[in-house]
Amino acid sequence: MNEAQLVMLSRQGDESAFNKLVELYKDKLFHMAHRILRSKTECEDVVQETFLKVYLNLNRFDENKRFSTWIFHIGKNVCLDLLRRRKTPPLPLDQPVTANSDQQLSLHEVIPHASLTPESQVIERELASTMADLIERLPEKYKNVVYQRYVLDMSMEDIGLANNIPVNTVKSRIHRGKDFMKKRWGKTLLIYSLLLFSFF
């Protein structure tokens, strides 16, 4: 049974189908939350709240779009809401960016996109993997903010909160990170970034 069928059955009240969706996404949601929050307990709360929101809003899901994009969007918003409620800022995100990994959420799964043909999906995965490698090679202080801005699509304010730095510093690091990538990889980066992100 594929994901689309599981979603359809879940919308019809099939608890078994929804439980299978939970199994498919719980670890990936946890890893995404950990990149933002760096707290195991909070990440577990995020996963639970995300699936609750998904379950309560299944009737609002547009079946013409990808379920993965929808659920990660909900999960990211739950993380950001929790981040804003914190009294103290979290630690910086310093986990490496890796694509197509069983242990970490891939860029392909995080990047919002429309429905694609099988051939286009293969190309997109290759592009996402290459972009992950480019981001991973950035200096540490640029890597985190570039990943948060262009992969997790976090606002400048939320990035500042996540890293305990002023918004102006966030903007400066993103700008310098982009310049670093453009100077080092030139046209190659331009092609990938135009296809995947709004870099330029």
Q: How are the secondary structure elements laid out?
A:
Blueprint: H1 3-11, H2 15-37, H3 40-56, H4 67-85, H5 107-110, H6 118-136, H7 140-150, H8 156-163, H9 167-196
Helix pairs in contact: 1-2, 2-3, 2-4, 3-4, 6-9, 7-9, 8-9
Protein model, in words:
The chain has helices spanning 3-11, 15-37, 40-56, 67-85, 107-110, 118-136, 140-150, 156-163, 167-196. By secondary structure, it is mostly helical. It has 2 domains: 1-91, Rna Polymerase Sigma Factor, Chain: A; 97-200, Winged helix-like DNA-binding domain superfamily/Winged helix DNA-binding domain (Arc Repressor Mutant, subunit A), CATH 1.10.10.10. Helix 3 packs across helix 4, helix 6 (118-136) runs antiparallel to helix 9 (167-196) and helix 7 (140-150) crosses helix 9 (167-196). The protein is globular. Residues 88-104 and 106-115 have low confidence and may be disordered. It comes from Paenibacillus lycopersici. GO terms for molecular function: DNA binding; sigma factor activity. Keywords: Sigma factor, Transcription, Transcription regulation. This is Sigma-70 family RNA polymerase sigma factor.
